[in-house]
Specification:
InterPro entries: Zn_peptidase_2 (IPR007395). This is Zn-dependent protease. It comes from Bacillus mesophilus. One of its GO terms (molecular function) is peptidase activity. By secondary structure, the protein is mostly helical. It has one domain. The protein has seven helices and three strands; from the N terminus they run ααβββααααα. Strands 1-3-2 form a three-stranded mixed beta sheet. α1 packs antiparallel against α7, α4 crosses α6 and α4 crosses α7. The longest helix has about 40 residues.
Length: about 220
């Protein structure tokens, strides 16, 4: 029974977080910001206000596909956020600019996350293969290697949290101080940013739970040997 509850939780938690962010985004993407600025204009203003004239802004296809690319120094905004003037679009655009600001200021957690990317990719792609082969072949050493790789991916998820929270805090500070939103629009803007942050919290929580479960299974294998 406990096994069923556990797997229900690791499935339900991410789905619930995704539903929250989609619901908040859908609701506030229909509410126009008082400034009337598009997401692209919001991003450009905050970048210029912080002297980041070298950072470009591009439209990217998809919904909630917005991101900052540190390699090309480009903020990419999904079509609705790029052209639209909603509170949700302003919040998302400001959040991505927050990452550009982190990059420009050499924010420690962002640098650490970038350094973890190669190891985290290996962990995400190969850890389960090693773990499953180790279980079926009763090779505890292979299971341990898979757990080590998975641990690297989990650390990446955990380090992502302060990066995302900091970007959201920067976003709120910038759009308020620049007058992009009014005081009575702050609550709605925070709802969008908090809902987005919840997806990262959910992902990190599930990753930690899975890692703990595998460590317990490995410990059980060792006690049986």
């Amino acid at each position: 029974m406990g096994f069923i509850i556990y797997f229900a939780l690791i499935i339900i938690i991410p789905l619930w977080a995704q539903m929250k962010v989609k619901s908040a985004y859908k609701k506030y993407s229909k509410v126009a910001a008082s400034s009337g600025m598009t997401g692209a204009q919001v991003a450009r203003k905050i970048l210029d206000d912080n002297g980041l004239y070298n950072v470009g802004i591009e439209e990217t296809p998809g919904t909630l596909s917005d991101h900052y690319d540190p390699r090309s120094k480009t903020v990419r905004l999904s079509t609705n956020n790029y052209h639209g003037n909603s509170i949700a679009g302003a919040a998302v655009a400001a959040h991505e600019v927050g990452h550009a600001m982190q990059d420009a200021q050499d924010y420690a957690f962002l640098r650490f996350r970038h350094a973890l990317v190669p190891v985290a990719n290996i962990g995400s792609n190969f850890s389960w293969i090693l773990i499953l082969v180790g279980f079926f072949a009763s090779m505890s050493g292979l299971v341990l290697l898979g757990i080590v790789f998975m641990a690297a991916a989990v650390v990446f998820q955990i380090v992502t949290l302060p990066v995302e929270f900091d970007a959201s805090n920067r976003a709120m500070n910038e759009i308020v101080s620049a007058g992009i939103i009014r005081n009575d629009e702050e609550r709605e803007t925070r709802k969008v940013l908090n809902a987005a942050a919840l997806t990262y919290v959910a992902a990190a929580l599930v990753a930690v739970l899975e890692l703990v479960r595998l460590v317990l299974i490995y410990t059980g294998m060792q006690s049986e040997d």
